[in-house]
Design brief:
It comes from Adiantum capillus-veneris. Helix content is 17%, strand content 31%. The protein is α+β, with helices and mostly antiparallel strands. It has a five-stranded mixed beta sheet with strand order 33-58-57-56-55, with no helix packed on it. The longest helix is centred in the first third of the chain and has 20 residues, at 67-86. It is globular, with a radius of gyration of 34 Å. The two termini are 60 Å apart. 43% of the residues are buried.
Length: 1143
């Protein structure tokens, strides 16, 4: 069904609701499956109308669709069963058990047996789990709360729980518009015509009373005079769903290889390219003026009176406007969001020093802001502390990459501006598009250290936009420029992968996206053309005209479901619209822009709810579902005519440019708390030293200091997309900017010395100095061999040495609404109703001597595990074994899911080989040989497309994922470059940037650059942490490394330099006495809370530890030159430290 047909169903639902056709409206909801009426569902459940409850549900889901649906139907049928037992109606209870509940026995036989046993009890409340069952009404209410949660979490109900925000009687309004148009086309229009039917088109009969011609001869198209201003319509307002138009987005997405040539969309069709003065959208806004003395007509129902309104059209002609009788407002709920959710309070003011051209908040760290300016500078700000963390002026890193045209352009005019700066999706890289040919890509460690990664001479002229995408499961950079092309580059190597040609004017912006498995790019040019491209060389798939037909940017809502564009015409007319992708048409146009915008209006989206744009020296906000302005703010004044703006990921902060080269940070209530927390946790930092490290060594630098002076005299260079460049700043402003830059670039050596003297290692010796909790455990104690958090962060899963898994879950409550793992609340040791334990296969093996391994699926539904026997796949809800495979020998010793395909698993084995196993076809696809002892670690890199393995032979190997070939290998080395004995396990884990690699051995921590396979940092146990390392892991944001030691201590290291910043003594979580020999075997980091970790202990205990709420972090980051207890600084690898090379 097409999108318009779907919308027609919603209009009919509204009409039926207004006319009080109660049964019919719910029948249509169920049959169409477009809108799930939660209020109606609640009423039926509370009334105990179980047949209607299941019938209504059947329009949206079936029992076996997914685990959420299964749970929904089970809860309903269980309640029906318990009510029958409560009424002592045994016959009905048996009937429900056999007909309704039997279906669940195949999924959980133990639970079905337990339910059956309730029949033997005089009162089912004798069962311990049902002892708190109250009366029927309260039980239904409790069940409803659970059902609502399941329905909201069920993906099958996504986008079906909120009724569209429609104006009252929308269908009547459309009918009135149609009748008015028909009446305007009458040859002999009568005043105040009496409409008796909608079954045929309206036509006024001759004045002498003759009958009107038959409907077939007075059609809307047939009544048009030739050459008239009213264009013929290609089809009605609701086209057939079977055949999307050739140029619609639905068409080219459905067809992976469409023809290269694409015909233009016919004028008048419901497509983007329809001219504004002839398209169907224009007819809705400006119907043709009727002939003299022609009045519009009123459509009335049998039980309604005429409602006539007099309106004056342009030209002063008075006409009667039809209004269909309006009923009461619809009772369907619509999405309403408070303007209080918007960030409107000025919380911070930053002085950038030069005109800000582009901004982007970090995708992970909500207070980190990237800024690019009109003199080519980029800066990274922590808006919470108002501290500039990093700053780079424009320089050419490597003259050899510059083409002759670029060199000539720089000689002619050295001024360079940033057109766009943006983070990649995980915040480990940032891209800068410059106004002269060039793209700079930096790698970034936590917003504090920038390293040049790629320099690309990308386009002839300006590079107007830049974006990151993941086509073919590899990170790519997408650019567009003045040379009318779009280009795609490999983000790891900088190699060009695609060039898209077809625009006839400079390309202004790009918007990459994907729908299911189809990856595509929208592009807009300054001639107003919108094109779409697949990652092939088949040409553009669509060719539309953007409203305004000049500079337009496009963006999707955060959930990727809705597409918007904002643009400004050469005359200053601005347009903000939402597109209907499946129809290739504008869905709605937002109102509220001034007649003549000064500059190109910029916009952004947030929370899937709101739009914001800078216009008239103000910030204007819209609800996505309402074309009218929601609210306007001026941010306490000082904004330019068309301010640039950017939301952070959560929509709690909004960065807005000012006319004095600054940035205002606006916040809502949650944003203010975020800023206060950042400020309270602020610490003295040293960033000047990072500037030197960011300059690439051994490469000639082209000095561009003269560019600032050139900018002062001539202003920034103006590319074809001139409206992206704000008016040139004044001479005084540039002078102030120069002085600021000069002061900022000089390293403050005396400050560094003071900070080094004042810094002290944080030592935590008592439990009162942090928050810690030992998880309650009623099962037999056995040392914890493996420990992982669930990906949602709400549970901890431990694998003990006796092959038994234990799962602790934190519960949501009023006091703990997030339900996430924390030391502040006690979790529950969770077991299914059957009481079974999740136990690995231990046939013909001693689990205490085996090397256990475990891996969790991305959605937390399944866990794969082994303890010396077969590999078992468990259902995390029921603890049941779904399947087993890979019988020993050799036994599995490490498991890793392929990051893009859960069906592919890398299995490290006891015999030193690695098997690439496909679960779906139960087949080993490849066997990798390179180690000499058992495999103890595996890690995939999305960015590098490699698998890294480590073994008990102290060797690390890199394998290509495409051909599973060994690329390189190295043996670890000890202090002084001495080789390590081949003992002890070696573990590996990738940094969030997917390039740096943490290598853990009992003798050391090391960080490698996996792309170059070079060691960057190395740390050896010493002084207060001199015991062997038992385990280590990155924090979720890779800013910290947590390491546990065999004496029970825990060290918290800075993730970039491996400098120790905090030490936790064993006394923090162990009581003195016999437990002195207890220590952590494994350490796990929370997936979303960077300062929380958990320990799995040799006595079988699991401990969760996090800093005090007032502290918020584990000590202060040590200055670069700090030395504690004589020798706590990490070792930096250099050419003097040799390593055993690749074999």
């Amino acid at each position: 069904m097409s999108s318009l047909s779907r919308e027609l169903v919603f209009l009919i639902l509204q009409f039926l609701d207004e006319e009080k056709f109660k049964e019919t409206v719910h029948k249509l909801e169920q049959e169409s499956g477009f809108f799930f009426n939660m209020k109606y569902f609640e009423d039926q459940v509370q009334s105990g109308e179980w047949e209607e409850v299941e019938r209504y549900l059947s329009g949206f889901t079936k029992v076996d669709d997914n685990r959420y649906s299964m749970k929904i139907f089970f809860e309903i049928r269980k309640q029906k069963y318990l009510e029958a037992l409560d009424k002592q109606d045994r016959a009905k209870a048996v009937d429900i058990l056999v007909k309704d509940l039997k279906v669940f026995s195949s999924f959980n036989e133990e639970l079905y047996k337990e339910i059956t046993q309730l029949l033997t009890l005089e009162n089912f409340r004798e069962n311990e789990q049902l002892s708190k069952y109250g009366d029927t009404k309260s039980a239904r209410s409790i069940m409803l709360l659970e059902l609502k949660k399941l329905i909201e979490a069920n993906p099958l109900f996504r986008d079906k729980l909120v009724f569209p925000g429609l104006k009252a009687s929308r269908l009547r309004t459309l009918i009135n518009q149609s009748l008015n148009w028909q009446h305007q086309l009458c040859k002999n229009p009568r005043p105040n015509p009496d409409i008796k039917t909608l079954f045929v088109d309206h036509s006024c009969g001759p004045q002498n009373g003759a009958r009107a011609p038959p409907a077939a001869s007075n059609s809307l198209v047939g009544g048009l005079p030739k050459g008239g201003a009213f264009p013929p319509l290609a089809h009605g307002p609701f086209p057939p769903a079977a055949a999307p138009t050739a140029n619609s987005i639905a068409s080219w997405m459905a067809n992976s290889n469409p023809p290269a040539a694409h015909p233009a969309v016919a004028a008048g069709s419901a497509a983007l390219s329809a001219p504004s003065n002839t398209g169907a959208a224009a007819l809705l806004k400006r119907p043709r003026t009727p002939p003299a003395n022609n009045s519009t007509l009123d459509y009335q129902s049998a039980d309604s009176e005429h409602i006539m309104k007099r309106v004056v059209r342009s030209g002063g002609q008075a006409v009667d406007e039809v209004t269909y009788p309006v009923a009461t407002a619809p009772t369907h709920p619509s999405a309403l969001y408070s303007p209080d959710d918007l960030p409107k309070m000025v919380a911070r003011i930053l002085n950038q020093g030069s005109c800000v051209m582009s901004m982007d908040f970090h995708p992970m760290q909500q207070t980190i802001l990237l800024v690019g300016t009109n003199v080519g500078d980029i800066a990274i700000w922590d808006v919470g502390t108002k501290e500039r963390l990093a700053h780079r002026t424009f320089k050419v890193w490597d003259l050899s990459v510059c083409t002759l045209p670029m060199q000539a352009a720089l000689v002619k005019d050295p001024a360079v501006s940033v057109n766009r700066c943006v983070w990649n999706p995980d915040g480990t890289l940032l891209g800068v598009a410059l106004s002269k040919h060039m793209v700079h890509i930096y790698s970034c460690a936590g917003g504090t250290e920038l390293r040049p990664h790629l320099e690309i001479d990308a386009h002839i002229g300006g590079v107007n936009d830049l974006a990151f995408a993941h086509p073919n499961k590899q990170l790519c950079i997408i650019t567009c420029g003045d040379d009318k092309t779009i280009k795609v580059w490999d983000a790891a190597t900088g190699r060009k992968q695609y060039t898209f040609e077809g625009h006839e004017a400079p390309v202004y912006s790009v918007c990459p996206h994907h729908k299911e498995n189809i990856q595509f790019i929208f592009s807009t040019a300054i001639d107003g053309k919108i094109k779409a491209w697949l990652y092939d060389l088949m040409g553009s798939r669509v060719d539309y005209d953007a409203p305004g037909q000049w500079c337009t940017t496009m963006a999707y809502s955060a959930d990727g479901a809705r597409l918007f564009s904002c643009g400004t015409s050469k005359e200053g007319e601005s347009y903000l619209v939402e597109w209907n992708e499946s129809e290739g048409a504008i869905k709605r146009t937002y109102l509220g822009f001034r007649k003549r915008s000064l500059g190109v209006v910029q916009f952004d989206t947030t929370r899937n709810h709101f739009l914001a744009a800078g216009d008239e020296f103000q910030i204007k906000f819209w609800d996505m579902d309402n074309v009218n302005l929601l609210t306007i703010i001026d941010a306490e004044g000082g904004l330019p005519a068309s301010p640039r703006l950017r939301f952070n990921k959560e929509g709690t902060l909004l960065a807005v440019t000012t006319n004095d080269n600054g940035i205002k940070i606006l916040a809502n209530a949650e944003g203010l708390r975020l800023l206060r927390n950042a400020e309270s946790r602020a610490e003295p930092r040293t960033f000047e030293s990072m500037r030197a490290s960011a300059e690439p060594s051994g490469k000639p630098m082209v000095g561009m200091n003269a560019m600032v002076a050139a900018s002062a005299s001539g202003g920034p260079s103006t590319s074809v997309v001139s409206d992206r460049i704000s008016p040139a700043v004044t001479m005084g402003g540039l002078g102030a900017m120069d002085s600021n830059l000069t002061v900022d670039v000089k390293p403050r050596i005396e400050d560094v010395a003071d900070k080094s003297k004042g810094w002290k290692l944080t030592e935590i010796m008592e439990a009162a100095q942090c928050r810690t909790i030992r998880l309650t455990d009623s099962l037999p104690a056995s040392k914890v061999s493996r420990l992982i958090y669930t990906n949602a962060g709400i549970a901890l899963l431990a694998l003990a040495s006796n092959a038994v898994h234990k799962l602790w879950k934190w519960q949501r409550s009023d006091r703990h609404p997030s339900g996430k793992a924390t030391a502040a609340f006690t979790p529950q040791l969770w077991q299914p109703a059957s009481g079974i334990l999740m136990t690995n296969d231990i046939t013909d093996t001693n689990p205490e001597e085996a090397v256990p391994c475990i891996a969790l699926s991305k959605n937390d539904s399944y866990v794969m595990s082994a303890s010396g026997g077969k590999v078992s796949l468990f259902n995390m809800m029921t603890f049941k074994v779904m399947t087993t495979f890979m019988s020993p020998p050799p036994a599995a010793t490490f498991l890793a899911f392929h990051p893009q395909d859960n069906n592919i698993i890398a299995i490290g084995l006891e015999d030193s080989t690695i098997h690439i196993y496909n679960v779906r076809v139960d087949e080993v696809k490849s066997k990798l040989k390179g180690h000499t002892k058992r495999i103890s670690g595996l890690a995939f890199s999305n960015s590098l497309n490699v698998l890294v393995s480590s073994g008990a032979d102290a060797q690390v190997c890199i394998w290509t994922v495409e051909g599973w070939e060994k690329r390189k290998s190295k043996f670890l080395q000890g202090q002084g470059g001495r080789p390590l004995p081949a003992t002890g396990d070696t573990k590996v884990q990738f940094h969030n940037d997917q390039i740096r690699l943490l290598v853990v051995h009992e003798s050391q921590l090391a960080i490698y650059d996996a792309a170059k396979f070079e060691r960057i940092r190395q740390w050896f146990p010493r002084d207060s942490l001199s015991a062997p390392i038992s385990n280590a892991t990155y924090s979720c944001d890779s800013q910290l490394v947590y390491a546990s030691f065999c004496d029970g201590s825990v060290g918290v290291f800075e993730g970039e330099s491996l400098r120790l910043q905090c030490r936790l003594a064993p006394s923090v979580y162990l009581t003195p006495g016999p437990s002195s020999s207890v220590y952590p075997l494994v350490i796990a980091a929370h997936p979303t809370e960077p300062n929380q970790f958990a320990l799995g202990l040799t006595d079988g205990g699991v401990q969760v530890i996090e800093p005090l709420e007032a502290e918020g972090r584990w000590g202060l980051v040590p200055p670069l030159e700090s030395v504690t207890n004589g020798a706590m600084s990490s070792v930096t690898s250099s050419a003097a430290v040799t390593e055993q090379g690749a074999r």
